[in-house]
Design brief:
Blueprint lengths: L5 H13 L4 H8 L3 H8 L8 H10 L6 H20 L13 E6 L2 E6 L1 H4 L39 E3 L1
Antiparallel strand pairs: 1-2, 2-3
Bound molecules: zinc ion (2 copies).
Length: 160
Amino acid sequence: MTKLDPEICLKIKEARRAAKLSQSVVANEVGCKQSALSMFEQGDGTKLNEDVINKLAQRFGISLTETAAARTAAAPVVAAVAEAVRVRGFCPNAHCPSNKPYEVDGRTLVLPDRLMADPVGGKFCALCGEILEKRCPNCGASVHDGAICSFCGDAYVAIG
Ligand SMILES: [Zn+2]
Ligand SMILES: [Zn+2]
C-alpha cells in the first residue's frame, strides 16, 4: 500500500487514549504485537500490515482516506504554487517588450513580466534573447513578483 500518513498513526493513538485502552489490549484485539502498535503510533506506518491498520481504523472510526483525499485535493494548488515559485527570470533589457514601464516618484521603473520573458523557465528572454536574470542585480536575492526587490529596495530593471 502507499505510505501511510503519519497523521493517521497519531489519530489512532489519540483515539486509543481517549478510549482509555492500553496498547496491549488494542494490539490483542486487532491481532498485532504491542511493540509494533507502539512504533506505529509513533508514526511508523510500516510496522503494521494493511489488514491490522484497517481494523484499527474501523475500531476507532477513523477514515484512512480522508487525509489522503484532502491532500490530493490540495495537490493542484501546491503544484501551481511550486510552479509560480520556480524562479522565472526577468529580462534585464529595460526596452524589452516583456518589461512594462511605470512611474514612481518621478522615477521610471520597469515591471518585468516574467511569464512573457521566460515562459518555460529558460536561460534567455523569449522576446529579445537577452540572458535572463533570476536574482536581484543589487543584493542577489531571488526575484519575486514586482519590480522592486523586497530585500534591498533596488529595481530589477530601471530606465534612467
Ligand atoms: Zn527581453
Ligand atoms: Zn535586492
